UniProtKB/TrEMBL annotation:
The lineage of its organism: Bacteria, Pseudomonadati, Thermodesulfobacteriota, Desulfobacteria, Desulfobacterales. It comes from Desulfosarcina widdelii. Keywords: Coiled coil. This is Chromosome segregation ATPase. Residues 289-323, 368-395, 477-568, 609-643 form a coiled coil.
Amino acid sequence: MSEYTASIRRIGLINSGMFDTLALNFDVRAVHLVGANNVGKTSLIALIQFLFFPKMREMTFVKSAAESLGFYFRPEGSYLLFEVRTLTGSIRTVGIFGTGEADSRVNFVFNGSFDVNTFLTEERTPLPFKDLQANLFDRDFARFDRFERYEEALLGLHTRGEYNVPLFDLSKTNFRLLRRLMQGLLRLDRIDATDVQQFLIRIVEKGAVRTRFNLLQDFEQKYRHINSLRIELRELEALKPVVARYHDLLAKIEETAEKRDQHAAYFFHLSAAVSMLLSEKKKQLARVYDDEEARLEKLGGSVKRLSEQASDARTRLGEVRRQKERFEALTKTAQSHSEALVRQERDRLTHARVELATALAATQPQDAERLKRQLAALTREIDNVTRQLTHKTLQTVWDQAGFDENRRALLRFLVSGDLASREAEAVLADEKSFLQASSKAAEYLDDEGRFRGFGLDLPREVWFVPETDREPLDERQKRLEREMQSVRTAIEIAENTKRKQAELAEMDAAIAAKEAILAELAELRQLTVTWKDLESITREESRLDRELARLSRVIREREEESRLLRRQQQVTYTALKTAEEKWEQVHQVHASLSPDDGEPPEGLMARRLETLQAEYTQMRQSIATLESQLKQLDSQLAEPKSELEARYERSASDVSFERWLENKADLAGAIHDLEAQLQREYDGIFTVVRAKLSKITQAFGFVESQVAALNKAIHNVRISNITHIGIALEKTALLDAIDQSIPGQLDLFAAPDTSASLEDAHAQVEEYFNQIRNYGTEINLKDMFRLKFSVQFSHQPDPVERYEIHRFESNGTETGVKIVIYLGLIGLLQERKNVTGTRIPFFLDEVGSIDADNLNQLIAYCTENNFLPIFASPEIRKDISHNYLFRRDGNRSYLASVVKITPKPMEIAQDDASDLAGHPA
């Protein structure tokens, strides 16, 4: 696309936005960004603002400026790259580096195209900015120290060529106006009639044509003099009611003050009489209160004594009743129990309890196994004794053989006691051999009785046990039986400790029950000694009941009398306090009053206190009302008085304030003279103002020429079913009146409208000027006309006219009309018509809603008028040459593929066919 003098050839991103790296070719007929939602299409287009707008505050993003900086520039460093062709035909790359902070953003430029790998390290991370400067030093790398210098670079205004990137042949004023239009193109904001009107006026103003006049600036001296006359006239007009109100308020204040003084004199004597009567009433109530207090103290002492007597009687009665109930219960106990039998049963239980407790104390649960082993040993031992008593044993055989005591002791030692005590027939196979062997055992004894046989060396005291020490078998049997019984009892206790403890507790309870019965029988004997019988207790109970009832009745009577007296005393106290408070109030008020030396009214002291108090309250309210009225009147007087005093001070008069008011009494003549003077001054200045209005009409002529140029540029534009788009100027009635009222200007614009008379035109201009005179509003060209937008549809015979672009029948129509008018306004900003301007990009989202024919028409129009259309939609369009398909990978996006489509050759169409290109005249 080399036929474009200045344009964006490519854009590149390094670690920016949603892309790690990206390079797109924009040097094409049209660009189509394809991808699902949130893949980064809109944010990719929004970054184009960094190329055209020097300052961040001029750019517009979806999020805030701080969030957008952090989105496009990451902390590790990010690059935005724009490869452009300048107006001179040179290729330069404009770049922006940043780390997400406002002060970190740097604009730079260098010669030639960019390579993405130049901005990456070997680890594929963003190259540090200092290293980039070193790498591109030989390509006239230049860094802009201020964003304002970058704006001058885009206009080619720098004296050093390495800074310039001339993309626009415009002045700074028109370039800034162009940026306002480009904001709408990149965001498709709604443009309304007021915006278009303002753009047209700005274009006219660049030709040094004035479109507004301010009376305070252009006619300062005369206008100030007229204003001073007008202010003085208004002050005189306002002075008359102020003076009348001032005098009226003074009269009312004097009348109210006189009435207040009369009331105050009478109120002084009235308050003195009320104070005296209240003092007497206060003393009387104090005496009554003291008498009632003495009676209350006497009644209180009587009630206290009676209450103490009743308390003693009540305590005695309770004790008697308790003893009576106890006497009855103990009598029943004595009838059902014998004291001797109860005592005998208690002793038996006590003995059994001691034995069981002793056994429990001597036996522990952990001795059960040991006791069982002991029982088994005793069982074996008693079995041996029984056998010895009933059968022939080895011991018996030794006795029958005639062995002496030493030999029998030795044999018993050598043979186990258990074996020796068994029946001989059970263990002896040959009794003779047994006896021979037993005889030889004595051969191993030496002279000292030491046994040295079988490898043993035992002294006599070890193996010899005298038979005289042996327990007889029958006694031994009885002893073993007793021990076995004791061991069995101990085992039973050890194995059944809880049950035995329960038995012990039952015994304790039974013993306690027996003890309680014995105690009750002893208590009955004591009560019998005190009362003798139940009838004596009953007689004492009746007597105490009667005494307590009598005391209670007397106490109630005394308490009721005390309550009535206390209530009466409260009434007296309230009346006393009320009298004291009223007296204090009246006394304070009387002390604050101004004394009156006149005689008090006759019969004042003879009247009742209640009547005087009612009149006192009424009179005090009347005085308060009069005081309030005086304050209100004083407050009302302050406003006119301060206003009059301010006027008096401004007048700097030598006479007194009162004399000055008298001089202002006749205001009619002064007002008439000032009005005449004001009219003469106004007639002089309005002649000059009419000349200024004629210049406004001249400025309107320049607006007409710009609108004509705009209509010529968009005359042959056809989009979809729209065959013609146009803008018309509609003069206001004020401009027509100016045309008629200013001689010599009628033939410059249009034929005069004969429907309105010259007098009506003068009156309308006069009304407009009066508004300016009264409110200080400037004369502005925008008040003289408004715009009307016209769209001719192919299916309608008449064009549709609207005063706003967004009021047409559909969103598609509104979008098409906005684009055409935007691009037409940009064309008007071109400084030199023989130089091709920069190819301006604009963005249209959701292009899928536009059919193929309309889209081809729109692209053809952009090609003819040097604009770059950038579209976006979810699907590839076969009618757009370059489709860039994006995919999402996690929180990043990437360019998946580039689909290039060669358009089919279009058939030659007739002149009246839909065509966006303009036909030469």
